[in-house]
From TrEMBL:
<feature type="domain" description="Peptidase M14">
    <location>
        <begin position="428"/>
        <end position="720"/>
    </location>
</feature>
<comment type="function">
    <text>Involved in the digestion of the blood meal.</text>
</comment>
<feature type="domain" description="Peptidase M14">
    <location>
        <begin position="89"/>
        <end position="342"/>
    </location>
</feature>
<keyword id="KW-0378">Hydrolase</keyword>
<feature type="region of interest" description="Disordered">
    <location>
        <begin position="767"/>
        <end position="806"/>
    </location>
</feature>
<protein>
    <submittedName>
        <fullName>Carboxypeptidase B</fullName>
    </submittedName>
</protein>
<feature type="compositionally biased region" description="Polar residues">
    <location>
        <begin position="795"/>
        <end position="806"/>
    </location>
</feature>
<dbReference type="Pfam" id="PF00246">
    <property type="entry name" value="Peptidase_M14"/>
</dbReference>
<keyword id="KW-0479">Metal-binding</keyword>
<dbReference type="GO" id="GO:0008270">
    <property type="term" value="F:zinc ion binding"/>
</dbReference>
<keyword id="KW-0121">Carboxypeptidase</keyword>
<feature type="compositionally biased region" description="Low complexity">
    <location>
        <begin position="767"/>
        <end position="782"/>
    </location>
</feature>
<keyword id="KW-0482">Metalloprotease</keyword>
<dbReference type="InterPro" id="IPR000834">
    <property type="entry name" value="Peptidase_M14"/>
</dbReference>
<keyword id="KW-0645">Protease</keyword>
<dbReference type="GO" id="GO:0004181">
    <property type="term" value="F:metallocarboxypeptidase activity"/>
</dbReference>
<keyword id="KW-0964">Secreted</keyword>
Length: 806
């Protein structure tokens, strides 16, 4: 604690009212500036104070103040003029506000200045928002100047904001995926801990009695913005503290907050060699009640809350201007480390109600429209954003929660294995273990008709199981059916298991066009994601592979044909994007398992059906281009036959057309690959119900949806039987065909330098049309066997098959 007087010449005025301004309460013996005057006054008030060993800490406050050389330039007249702002000296409020407005003027798409309240003396409180307007950004609050005398805090805060704005395009994603709310002079009051109005720690008459703290509460608590990080800058202890300050009990997230603070402290040390201590306030400073960090964590529910005490222990509040930039730079490294830690360590709030987690979740895209789900508190913000950009919209579902309840699934936060005793039915949606047990039970009950095998394992090691239904005839044609490549589409798995159950139990009554097929059925292509939708995030779309700071690949953008075409329009190379295609074709074990199962089956596949939801459409290639596929008319006709059967069964109308025409560009899809590479002539993706309920189809509609799909599949088989002579069966032996060739009107650019059929580099293709390797050559003449990825390492000889594993 440091004690000083305002003016040596006004000693007499303070004989009965000594001014005590405590810089840092660490339990030390008082260190006195004007020891004679303070000693005399304190002795008259408290004779028990131990002042005999007190020594002057700063001999002359007035001379020390000269270190600041504070200059107050005129406020810039134009908003674009920020010449008065620099980090070589300290500035007053007008200069800081002019600087904020200049950023808004010069970077209107990135910066905005928003008034948030009026101080007790009538000054406007302004906040600088830095954002690229991505609605999925996580908000970060960073304030300074809550204690007016801590000048270094606003200097550091403005430096960080300025750096982010000027370097936004080159900054790492941990900066750019945030919405920064920066307030450089938040208040002109003190810390709350005393009921005495004369105390520097007077807490006010009641919580939020002051307009400054009320303005903060309104934004953090009542704005609907769900902040991820709260940082408040102070001086001068060189410590990083986190909740709680008002009690000895550790906060529930102590370890996570400790790890984040440690990362920050480490970054500072690596930057300048300065050591910032880390811990809760009671451990590294003192007990403090009513602090902004405790409130932000405990009441506003912000998961990462920190108070950073800046430099310096030597100079206290009087940090020389020469140290401003160095202090700014070390804290910038500190904030970078925190943002990186936050992104790499997502807060896993147990989602016991299975409510959607992301703020904005893309459900469906079509040519001219998109369905998105918005987290309740953010709905107003998103609506305003759409309105500002003149984007028309309408509310389709006012409240998703009741629909989740109607699905009839209760969260089970346990690993559901094959030993589950839950019976299989179609009155509700089931976990992975129940589905796998159902498949095994069919194989056990009908061993001459059914068999179950594991075709691969997921990223997290779960089995990807396939049910094969076959009477064992060697000339049967193959039908592939899969579901849950996008795990949130629960109805797809329910429908496919129903179809499988009906095929097996009524097999003896089925017509020849059903029984002369070998049925390959994979109810859950993405087992990791499927389980994740039951335990964490109901709306999860991708698998659970980790790439950098992000999780998941959209498996239906990870197949080789057309992979990466249309750039960001057909898929994305951003791991954070919901349509992330992965680093290369078949990079994921789930898609590689499908490829291997089809290519090694030794069966003449005729049909490929992948079930999704929602949209009530039947779509076929192409997705990567708007050009029609070679058998467009035939595909359209067969699809129409399915749609008609569905309408006759239930009255529901499913649209039919190419992926691009009915939905959007989609590159690297399973249907494009199965048609072009695996040469399966009838390749369809069936988007199931329902337009009204979206992904949250009530459990009461499972059976009726399954029945209409079963009718559609049966009609497709009947159609194929009638036109079998028009389109000969395709023999797929390691994805090679002796007689069937797909001619692509417009080949993807990445394919242009590679063998069209095997997808390998042309140098490994020894076709009869070599060396040009025309895209219309027969695949029988290509020696790059078992090679369908877009690799460039294949260099096999004409007499040896390609040995590249893909």
């Amino acid at each position: 604690m440091v004690v000083y007087t305002k003016d040596e010449n006004q000693k007499d005025n303070y004989k009965n009212n000594v001014l005590l301004d405590m810089y840092n309460d660490s339990g030390e013996i008082l260190r006195i500036i004007d020891s004679n005057f303070i000693y005399q006054n304190l002795i008259t008030r408290n004779e028990n104070l131990d002042l005999y060993n007190a020594k002057p800490l700063i001999e002359d406050v007035e001379s020390k103040n000269k270190l600041h050389s504070l200059k107050i330039p005129d406020t810039p007249k134009q908003k674009a003029n920020d010449q008065g702002m620099n980090w070589n000296e300290y500035h007053n409020l007008d200069v800081i506000y002019a600087w904020m407005e200049s950023l808004e003027y010069n970077y209107p798409s990135l910066c905005s200045v928003i008034p948030i309240g009026i101080t007790i003396e009538g000054r406007t409180m302004k906040i600088l928002k830095i954002s690229n307007s991505d609605v999925q950004n996580e908000p970060v609050w960073i304030d300074a100047g809550i204690h007016g005398r801590e000048w270094i805090a606003p200097a550091v805060n403005t430096f960080i904001a300025n750096y982010i704005v000027l370097n936004f395009k080159s900054l790492p994603s941990c900066f750019t995926n945030k919405d920064w709310q920066v307030i450089s002079y938040f208040g002109w009051g003190g810390r709350h801990s005393s009921t005495d109005p004369s105390s520097a720690f007077f807490r006010g008459r009641e919580p939020f009695s002051e307009p400054e703290s009320t303005a903060m509460k309104d934004i953090l608590m009542n704005s609907g913005i769900k902040f991820k990080v709260y940082v408040t800058l102070h001086s001068f202890g060189q410590v990083i503290v986190f909740p709680f300050g008002y009690r000895d009990e550790l906060c529930p997230d102590y370890m996570r907050l400790l790890q984040g603070a440690t990362a920050m402290s480490k970054a500072i040390f690596r930057s300048t060699g300065n050591v910032y201590k880390v811990g809760i306030s009671r451990d590294v400073m003192y007990g403090a009640s009513g602090t902004s960090t405790d409130w932000s964590y405990g009441a506003a529910k912000i998961p990462y809350c920190y108070l950073i005490e800046l430099r310096s222990k030597e100079h206290k509040f009087e940090l020389p201007k020469e140290e401003i930039k160095e202090n700014c730079k070390e804290v910038l490294h500190c904030i970078h480390a925190l943002m990186d830690f936050v992104d790499k360590n997502p807060v896993d709030n147990e989602n016991t109600n299975l409510s959607p987690v992301p703020t904005v979740n893309i459900w469906k895209e079509e040519r001219s429209s998109m369905d998105i789900m918005v987290e309740g508190p953010k709905s107003t913000q998103v609506a305003e954003l759409l309105y500002e950009r003149s984007i028309p919209f309408a509310v389709a579902i006012g409240d998703v929660a009741p629909m989740l309840d109607r699905e009839g699934v209760k969260p089970k936060h346990r690993k559901c294995g094959t030993g589950s005793k839950v019976p299989m039915d179609w009155k509700s949606y089931h976990r992975l273990g129940v589905i796998y047990e159902f498949m095994e039970s069919l194989a056990a009950e009908w061993p001459t008709l059914c068999s179950v095998c594991t075709i691969g394992r997921s990223v997290e090691g779960r089995a990807i199981k396939m049910l094969k239904i076959s009477n064992g005839r060697c000339n049967n044609e193959g039908v592939w059916m899969d579901a849950a490549i996008h795990p949130r589409e629960w109805i797809s798995t329910a429908v496919l298991t129903y179809v499988a159950d009906q095929l097996v139990r009524t097999y003896d009554q089925q017509p020849d066009y059903i029984t002369n097929k070998d049925w390959f059925i994979v109810p859950v292509v993405n087992p990791d994601g499927y389980e994740y939708t039951h335990t964490h995030d109901r709306m999860w779309r991708k698998n659970r592979a980790r790439y950098g700071e992000c999780y998941g690949v959209d498996l239906n953008r990870n197949f080789s044909y057309g992979w990466g075409e249309r750039d960001e329009e057909g898929s994305s190379d951003d791991p954070a994007n919901i349509f992330y295609r992965g680093p290369e074709p078949f990079s994921e074990p789930e898609t590689a398992a499908i490829r291997q199962a089809i290519c090694s089956a030794g069966t003449k596949f005729k049909v490929f059906l992948s079930f999704h939801s929602y949209g009530e459409v039947i779509i076929f290639p192409w997705g990567y281009t708007g050009d029609p596929c070679p058998h467009y008319v035939q595909m359209l006709e067969a699809g129409t036959a399915m749609a008609k059967a569905i309408q006759q069964a239930s009255g529901h109308i499913y649209k039919v057309g190419s992926t691009k025409d009915l939905m959007y560009y989609a590159s690297g899809t399973s249907t494009d690959w199965s048609y072009a590479v695996a040469n399966i002539p009838y390749s369809y993706m069936v988007e199931l119900r329902g337009k009204r309920h979206r992904f949250l189809l009530p459990k009461e509609e499972i059976v009726c949806t399954s029945i209409e799909v079963l009718c559609g599949v049966s009609k497709l088989m009947e159609y194929i039987e009638k036109f079998n002579k028009v389109t000969p069966a395709i023999s797929v032996e390691s994805c090679q065909s002796p007689s069937y060739t797909v001619k692509v009107p417009r080949t993807p650019s990445w394919v242009s330098a590679r063998c069209h059929s095997c997808r390998s580099s042309r140098s490994c293709c020894k076709s009869s049309r070599s060396p040009s390797c025309s895209r219309s050559h027969s695949r029988q003449s290509c020696n790059a066997q078992k090679c369908d990825s877009a690799h460039s390492k294949c260099r096999s000889s004409p007499t040896k098959p390609c040995n590249f594993s893909g």
